[in-house]
Amino acid sequence: MFSGIDEVDWASMEHAYGPADDVPELLRGLASDDPAEREAALDGMYGAVHHQGDVYACTLACIPFLFELVVDPGVQDRGGVVELLTSIGGFDLDEDDEAEIDEDEIEGAANYAMAAAAVTAGAGVFFELIADEDPGVRLAAPLALATLHRHPVRVLALLRERLPVEPDEEVRLALVEAAGRVALRHRPLAERVGKWLGLLASRADSPGLRLAALAQLARCSPDGLPGDVVPVVSGLLREMRSASEESGGRQEPAGPGSGASPGGIPAREDDEPEPGPDTTPAAAAAVDSDPVEPIEPVEPVQPVDPEPVAPAEAGRGEHVATPTLVGQLRSLSAQENAGRGAPWAADLLRTLHVGLDDRVGDRTALLADQLRSPDRRQRIDAVRMSGGLIRAWRGPYEELVALVGEQLADPEPRLAEAASHVLEELFGLAAPAADALAARLAADPGGWVKTWAGGPPGLGSTVKALARIGDPRAVPALAAALEREQVAHDVGFAVGCLGAAARPLAGVLRRRLADVELDENAYDRASPLLAGLTALRAGEATPEVLRMLRGAPEYRGEWLRTAALRALGAFGPAAREAVPELRALIRRPGTASATEAAEALWAVSGDADAVLPVLIEGLQSDQVHDRRAAAVALGALGPRAAVVAPRLRGLLAHDELWLRVDAAIALWEVSGRTRETVAALLTAWEQNRHVRVRVAECLARMGPVPEGSAAAHVLRSELVSVRRHNAMDGGYGSHDIHEDEKLLALCRQALRGAGKGSTP
């Protein structure tokens, strides 16, 4: 094995962490008899050689040796190597990607293309691995074929042929998933795959297999889903629970059939979908770049040993606890799935939800049914999926949120914790669970504040969720958090969410701020207190805030001064004793602190003559951030700053989108004219979805949006969209739901004209 590996000039190549001269050792480690060494080697391959999906020259050089590993039956854990090859070769570079590649990315793009070509060229070996004795290899091979092989018609034929004789339930599910992947990658075959999946979904005797078929049907051919998909899926989940209970907590795999495919689908030619234009060799050739053989030449697959195999145990290789990332992920997965009869059910349901996409009503009904399940693990999955649904899609979620709230009383800590984390992100949408949150808060004072080894303490998710609703029952927990030696870093934000209900906390916020030592840790200790006082507009704390302003240390002193100036500005005329200090600060025009001080001075004294020159100079700063701050501050002056209208108008053509938005809003505020502002704001709205809240705030303040106008059309289009404006694939922010709900409220406000009016 590994003939020629030492002839490769590995030292001349690099991976994510430097010279690639350690790659031969990693490759040999993958063939080791020691499970820990194999796992460490696989971790090294993903961590360095294929770091975050990257393909380096050394990655390309590894491909022939990885193929040697997967075809050698003496190597253990080959399924992991098959998955690695699939990841290396499975990158699709479509035409849109190619158009966006710049000069610095050309080499990387070429590596991806060469990797795809090299792995695809050798993908024929996965046909043999589909019947390998190792279930772990058989589990990885179908997706490798679906992702990498050039002949999807042959792949589909093999998947269908293999399904009746495959004894391992989890591998059977992988065969179905691979068929769905083929349909997604080769759309002319989607109808054919959909017909087969529809048969499986209606006839298979395994509820897990029927659920898998429905999940893939939702992904590749959603029109083929049954109209009553929610009760069908709910029934399958009940069947799976019953089967798990009867087998003592584990799903037994179905054995190979005799002359019939799983679920009673006859293995007869007349059960084959009618040949259509997408199933002929000629049509298949249109899908692939190479000629495609018809289905008939595929050689029969020999059945493996029919003895039942436990899906999650036998044949997967001997796994041991290791300090690698792969080992940690496997350990977490094992903990999560411990005792589950069908650990793959959650993945199937997630796939189904992705396929159902914008069918929010069906998805909500399905999750509501899951949340009523007697199976706690199923409810944990449903809680998490509920968070994903609400995060990405708009809809009526009162019932779903109330059911999530009910999980807070469950004695299973993981379930209650998952529910509180989901509710924390919902802000006002969590109102149906307010009583449940308050009950959990009262029952668990030890969870009011969470401590971490590597950072400041933070509020518990139940406290944050209740505060973000604006429920005053969160006040005692915040009061207790303020009495701790180290104040929770997010207490100020929670105070702001509570608003007037948190007014009784002003005294302790002020007292704790007075105790903050002005050393290098001053900002960390003072910032949550200043945020709370700012939110409460607690002008009586002006002396304590001035102490921060005057004594800010060198380390993070600028941050501390900014927080103090914001507090003084929020206090308004109640902070009049700070005027001399603020006047002194604005004598350094052109600096960020001068702009911040001028903004605070205007709020406290209303002295436009003093602050206007400072803000005009700030508008000419070389830093975009400083120019934005000056524009916002000038807008606050309103007509008193009308003289800067031409300067603001000139910024409407600036390259920086956010500066254009701030300048447009300020232009309306100082001039009262809407035409230029609205045109600039609507252009920005289309260019960047993340500016929409800021734009909608301005439109709402302008007053009635004329019916039939471009602005009215944009706002109404936003309101009828089911997708949240800031929903992202593969990531999210903790305030995304709150921001989107705020956008919807502002759109409605602008359309009904609850603003201050405007001058055309």
Automatic annotation (TrEMBL):
| This protein's UniProt keywords | Ligase
> Looking at the keywords, is Nucleus present?
no
Ranges annotated as biased composition (Low complexity): 277-289
Q: According to the UniProt record, where is the region Disordered?
A: 241-316
Q: Which SMART domains match?
A: EZ_HEAT (SM00567)
Q: What is the species listed in this Swiss-Prot or TrEMBL entry?
A: Streptomyces filamentosus NRRL 15998
Q: Name one GO molecular function term.
A: ligase activity
Q: Which InterPro entries match?
A: ARM-like, ARM-type_fold, PBS_lyase_HEAT
This chain's protein is named O-succinylbenzoic acid-CoA ligase
